[in-house]
Design a protein that fits this description.
The chain contains five helices and seven strands; from the N terminus they run H-E-H-H-E-E-H-E-H-E-E-E. The chain has a four-stranded parallel sheet, with helices on both faces.
């Protein structure tokens, strides 16, 4: 799974996070980690996410670092500008930001990873979406763990 996510990050020009996701990812992955803090097989992902350019959508943060820039103002206009600048694309993570970008019609591709565990709690993806979005399956990858990554494009 970490290899898969590392490959995904390598394919993006930059990562786009909301404040909560940015702070969570920074806390978990920012280098240097103390010796033995994570197993060796996590290091390629850690190195990739550390090196990645990041944009953070936040009206409350005063500044960011970790190879990041703040995105303020009109979300739609800001993301449209970032999409025009990027060559390989942006990766977005989180819960609230993907919902907002979906409402604006700014997500070109979705990837959902289904893990073989029922949790019974946690955030609900796309809760409150104002209208349904029909998707077309583009690819799927099955992992030895039983998890399945499915990639979709919005039907136009």
């Amino acid at each position: 799974m970490h290899r898969h996510h590392t490959e995904n990050l390598i394919q993006a020009d930059a990562l786009l996070f909301g404040r909560v996701t940015y702070e969570m990812m920074e806390a978990g992955w920012r280098s240097p980690a103390s010796p033995g803090a994570r197993p060796d097989w996590m290091e390629p992902f850690a190195q990739t996410i550390n090196a990645a350019k990041k944009y953070v959508v936040s009206s409350t943060l005063e500044q960011v670092d970790w190879n990041a820039e703040l995105v303020r103002g009109d979300l739609g206009k800001a993301v449209q500008q970032l999409k025009r600048e990027s060559g390989k694309g942006l990766f977005v993570g989180g819960v609230k930001l993907p919902l907002a970008l979906t409402e604006l019609g700014l997500i070109d591709e979705f990837e959902f990873v289904v893990h073989p565990r029922l949790a019974g709690h946690g955030p609900t993806l796309f809760e409150g979406l104002s209208k349904h979005v029909d998707l077309k399956l583009v690819s799927r990858v099955e992992f030895g763990s039983g998890a399945v990554a499915m990639r979709y494009e919005p039907k136009r």
